[in-house]
Amino acid sequence: MTAAMEDEPQHRSEDILYRNLLDWMGLAGHTDESTATRYVRALRQMTRGVHVDPGRHLQVQFPPVTTSLLLITVKDIPYVSLCAHHMLPFWGTTTIAVLPTPGAKIVGLSKITRCFQELAARPQIQEQLGQQMLDAIQGNLDVSGAAIAIRGTHTCMALRGAATGTNTEMVTTSNMGKLEHEPWLGQFLTIARSVLTD
Ligand SMILES: [Zn+2]
Predict the structure, then answer these.
(1) How does the average pLDDT of the chain come out, rounded?
(2) 161 near 59, Cβ under 8 Å?
(3) CA of 98 to the centre of ligand 1 (A)
(4) What is the pLDDT of residues 93-117, one digit of tens each?
(5) What is the gyration radius of the CA atoms in the chain, in angstroms?
(6) From 3, 48, 158, 170, which residue has the greatest number of CB atoms within 10 Å?
(7) Ligand 1 being an ion, which residues bring their Cβ within 5 A of it?
(8) How many Å apart are CA 175 and CA 188, to the nearest integer?
(9) Full set of structural domains in the chain with CATH
(10) Type and span of the H or E element at 177
(11) C-alpha span between 22 and 28 (Å, rounded)
């Protein structure tokens, strides 16, 4: 037991709720004494994005570097999330592209990453996660277009139900503005394809 765990009250009410669930399922005695405390702590960490505005990261912006259209892509951003249907983890990588409006301020790449990872740190449906990221971009940045491709391995499909194992992925894409059309759509798909087939 760590020092931090020793400092905490032994059975807080939220821990007892989970302990009761284990009891009700006949699992009492099959888990560690501190499992309920650990579970609640893990769930809090994995849902930390509920209590913040992930879009705030995108408000940290820098002066423009070019007056022409330039596609900026961040590849292979790792994330973990909980599926809203089962509250079981899914994880993967994401590729996000933004096309800043010429002359507009631009955002740092790490801010795009932080914003997406916080959106993922909510009970999520992968199809909606991509659209929420585009909404955050559109709401906080001056862009002519944006696109996102998400790869996800869902334990609710891998380990139960269809029991596909972890090699089966879900891939979702969402686009807005100029990235819905050629030639920018083609550029994004070329970049995304190289990522998706790695
Ligand atoms: Zn699920």
Answers:
(1) 89
(2) no
(3) 29
(4) 999 999 999 999 989 889 999 999 9
(5) 20
(6) 158
(7) 83, 85-86, 156
(8) 10
(9) 3-46 (no CATH), 55-196 (3.30.1130.10)
(10) strand 170-177
(11) 6
